[in-house]
Amino acid sequence: MRSARPLPSTLQPRTLSTAICLALSLLGGTASLPLQAAEPASSVAAPSVPAGPLDQALNLFAEQAGITLSYSPQMVHGLRSPGVAEGESLDDGLRLLLAGTGLVAEKTASGYVVRLSQSDASYQLEPMTIKATLAPGAFEPVPGYFASNASSATKSDKPILETAQSISVVTAEQMADRKVDRVEDAVAYSAGVRVGSSGLDPRFDQINIRGFETTMSADFLDGLRQPYNGWLSIYGAEAFALERVEVLKGPASVLYGQISPGGMVNRVSKRPSVLAKNQVEIQGGSHDHRQGQFDVGGKLDEDGDVLFRTVGVYRDAQYDIEQLNNDVRLLAPSLSWQIDSATSLTLLAQYQERETAASPMLYQDGDHLTDFWQGDEYFDKLGQRQWTFGYEFEHAFNDSLSVQQNLRYGQLNTTNQYLQPNGTITNGVMERDAVGVYEDMDSLTSDTRLVNRFATGELQHTLLSGWDYTWFDSSVLYATGPAPSIDMGAPDYHQPVSKPTAALADQDSLTQRSGLYLQDQIELERWRLSVGVRRDWVHVRNSNNLTDTHTKTSDSATTYQLGALYLFDNGLAPYTSYAESFLPQSGSNASGPLKPTEGKQYEVGLKYQPPGTSAMFTASLYHLTQENVSTRDPVDPLNTVQTGEQVSRGLELEAVADLNERLSLTAGYSYNDPEVTKSNDGNEGKDPKDVPRHLVSLWLDYNLPSGLGFGGGARYTGSVYGNDMNTVKSEDYTLVDAVVRYDFGGGLDGVRVALNARNLFDKQYINCQAGFCYRGEARSLVTSLSYSW
Description:
Largest sheet: 22 strands, antiparallel, barrel
Structural class: mainly beta
CATH architecture of the largest domain: Beta Barrel
Number of helices: 7
Shape: globular
Helix content: under 10%
Strand content: over 45%
CATH superfamily of the largest domain: TonB-dependent receptor, beta-barrel domain
C-alpha cells in the first residue's frame, strides 16, 4: 500500500540501493536487498472514499488504491471533496474525487499529479510545489515506521526533510511492535536520547536529550506544555493513547518558552481520522501482567464531517519487584467537526488513574543484586488521578490567513508515599522513616497563533505569530513520620504504617508563564530559511503555610532562532541552525532569586531521503552550551554564584526506514563529549555526572509472506560517572528486546498473536549517582491477541 506525504518537488521515485548502503554502513554490515519504488497502478479500481476535507480524501484514496499521488498542500487547503463510490475506474475515481474543486489529476510517468484545471490556469502556483508520494501528515496515523512530516519544530505540518533541526519521530506502529507502555520506553531507540538514568522508576519518564534532563521541563502533549510544580505532580501519558512521539533536539524556547536546552518531547494524542484503524487487544505476561485496550472510531454523520475516536486501557500488573504496581485505567474520547470548508474543531478529553511505587534502591550481596526492597506493599505507592479536556480550533479567513487556537484544562491529584532507610542497620535489621507527598494541581494551557502566507518578490513566507499562556495552581504537603523496622534477610512487606504527619513543607503556589513569538518560514526556490524571536515572562507566587510567609518571583527572557536548509534534486538536504533556550530556577542565593539558566546551540547536519522512498537518514553535529549554572562562591563557601557552565559537543546518526512492505528499521548512534567548562566546585574540565558518551540502538522488523513476523533490537548505553569529581563510575550495558508474531489471514484477517520480550537476556545493570544506586528493569514477557479492522 502507498499513502500520501508532502515532499520536495524535485524528488522523483527511484530505487533504494543508496539508502541501503547508508543504513548498513550505519549498522556496520553489508547486504544486498531488492527494493522497489512506487509505480502508478492505473489498472486498480477506485476505492470508496467518503466526502470530507480534500487533503484527507486524497490521503485515503492514495493509500487504498496503492498509487503515487502528488499535490501542493497550499492548493488543497480548505477544499472539500464530494467523495467517490467504489467500482469506478481509477481515472474516473480521481475525477469524481476532485469534482467542484477546480483541480484535476494528470497521469505522469511517476504517478498522478493534482493540478489546477486549464480554466483556472491564471491561479496556477509556481512549480515549487511540494510533490512526491503522499503520506499522512503530522497528526494522522502513519502506516509504518517512517513519518515524513512533523509539527514540533514549526507548530505546523511540515516535511522533516525541509526542517533545519534534528527531529526523531516514534510512530504508533513502532510502539505497538515493541509493546511499550511508557513514553520513556517509546523513545529508547531514538538517537541522542538516554532513558533510565535512575534505573527502574516508573513514577515518571526519565528522558535525557544531548546530555540534559527533559522530564520536568520539556513535557508536552499536542504542542501544549504539561505543567510541573517542582514536586511529583507530573501528568502521565500512556503510549497506546498516542499517535506518535516527536523528539525535537536542541533549544526550542522560541516556540515553547521555558524549556531544557537539550530539547523537548512532544506527545501527539490519537484523534479522529479517516485513516485510523479500529483495534481491540488483550495481553497477559510475566509479573502478573493483565491488560485490555481498545481504539475505535468512525463517522457520526453521512458526509463524514463529524468523526469520533475513543481509546481505552485497563492494566493490572507489577514489575519484577513484586511490590511495584503497574496499574492504569484510561479513557480518552475525542471528536472532530469540519464545521465548513474553512473551519474545523477537534475536542480531546482524557481520564486516567494509575498506581505504582518509588524506585527501589540497590542492595548487594557481594556482586549479586538482591531482591530486597525497603518499602511496604500496603504503604508505598504513587497514586495519581488526572483528567484533561481541551480543543484545537482552526479557521481560514482566506487562502493566505488563518487563525489556530489550542487550549487544555486539567486537574491532577497525587499521593506519593514511601519508606526510606534512616541510615541505621543493626544485625541485618533496617530502621526506616515514612515519607508522604500529597499534591493537588489545576492547570490551564493555551496557544493562539495567526498563520499568514504571502510573497515578497521571490520569497514565499509562512509567518507564524502567536501568544501562549500557562497557568497552574498547586498545593503540596510534604510530611515524615516513624515507621517499623524490617529484617533484610526475612522481610515482611505488610506491616502497619501510620500516615506521616510531621510536615516538612506545606505550601501553595501559583505560576503564570506567557510568551509572544514570531517565526518566519521562508522558501526561495530550493532554500528553506527560518528566523524566530520570542519574549517570555514567568511569575511565581509561593505561600509557605508553616511560616505564613509569601514570596513572589518574576523572570523574563528574549530568545532567538535561525535556520537554513537547501534541497538538492537527489534527496540530500544540508542544513545549519542556531537556537536558544532559557529555564527558570527555583531557590535563591545572597544576591536574590536565582536567574534562569540559558542554552545556546549551533548545529550543522545533513538529511537524506532517497527519492520515492519511505526512508530518512540524518547526520548532525552540535555544540550546546548551558550558562548560569550554580557553583560555589569562591568568597563565601556558604553561598552560590551562577558562573558555572556546561557544554555538550556531539555527533548523531539516525536512520528510519520502511525498506519495503516487509522490512522496517530504526538505527541510531550518538557520541557526546560533555564537559563542565566553568565551575568553582573543583570539577572544571570533568564530565557532568550521568551523561554517557556513547549511545547505540538498532531495531529490525520483518514479516514473512506466511504471516509470521519477527522483530529484534539492541540498545547500548555507555558508562557514566556517578559524581561531580568523576571518581564513581557505572559500567556500560546492552539490553536486547524481541518480538515474534503471527498474522492470521482468510476468515481471521486482522487477527494477530504476538510474544514480546524486553531485556530478553535479563541483563542486570545498575546506575549510581549522588551517592545512591539504582537497579534497571529486569526481563518481562508479554503475550498479546489483537484484532484490527
